[in-house]
Amino acid sequence: MFEAIPRYVLILIFIVVNIVGFIVFGFDKLQSKRRGWRVPETRLLALAFLGPFGAWAGMLLFRHKTRRTKFLIVPVLILIQIVVIIYFHMK
User: Fold this and answer.
1) Which of 10, 19, 26, 37 has the fewest CB atoms below 10 angstroms from its CB?
2) SS in 3 state form for 8-53?
3) What dihedral angle (degrees, nearest 10) is formed by the CA atoms of 37, 38, 40, 45?
4) Tens place of pLDDT for every residue, the chain, 91 residues?
5) Taking the domains of the chain in order of start, what are their residue ranges?
6) Ramachandran region of residue 90, left (φ > 0), alpha (ψ -120 to 50) or beta?
7) What stretch of H or E contains 78?
8) Contact at 8 Å (CB) between 63 and 31?
């Protein structure tokens, strides 16, 4: 499936998605303090699914969504993503 896409492109996409997730979690925390427009939780969860490292870093650094039960799955997503990366790297 990913054979046609160069490895460096996949790595770049992975890095960008994690950076975006980190920034969005920080933005949502800022907006919660300002009582401004918030990012819907479904979007935050989608970003956590696609880029769990950035989401987890944002959750910890900004102390945001750390008590929400839905977001306790983020470390599990990190583990799954690590396993997938190792699997594709070994092929």
Assistant:
1) 37
2) HHHHHHHHHHHHHHHHHHHHHHHHHHHCCCCCCHHHHHHHHHHCHH
3) 150
4) 556 888 788 889 989 999 999 999 999 999 999 999 999 999 999 998 888 899 999 999 999 888 888 888 888 888 888 888 888 777 7
5) 7-90
6) alpha
7) helix 74-90
8) no
Q: Residue 63 carries which side chain, given as an amino acid letter? A: R
**Token reading at 75:** 């470390």
Distance, in Å, from the CA atom of 91 to the CA atom of 82, rounded to the nearest integer, reads 15
Reading the block at residue 1, the tokens are 């499936």
Token pair 């910890």: residue: 60
Q: What CA–CA distances, in Å, run from 74 to 8, 25, 35, 37, 91?
A: 25, 13, 25, 23, 26
Between CA 15 and CA 13 the distance in angstroms is 5
Amino acid residing at 71: F
